[in-house]
Write a structure and sequence with these properties.
Order of helices and strands: H
Radius of gyration: 33 Å
Number of helices: 1
Structural class: mainly alpha
Shape: elongated
Helix content: 25-40%
């Protein structure tokens, strides 16, 4: 067998696997699986905390010469 025929056979096998996976994972028409039910989670109010500025060191406005 030549390398071209081996490549063709391996390519056919890979294409068949990809096609089978596509039919397995992608819903098709009326045979689609129903979507899972969503559970509504009640929103909890967010408690705000007053933000204080971070303490910083002393600020030198003028530097004597």
């Amino acid at each position: 067998m030549t390398s071209e025929s081996i490549g063709g056979v391996l390519g056919f096998i890979v294409a068949a696997i990809v096609l089978a996976a596509a039919f397995y994972y992608v819903p098709v028409g009326p045979f689609a699986r129903p979507a899972p039910a969503r559970v509504e989670v009640p929103a909890q109010p967010v408690q705000t905390v007053p933000i204080t500025p971070t303490p910083r060191g002393p600020v030198v406005r003028e530097v004597p010469n």
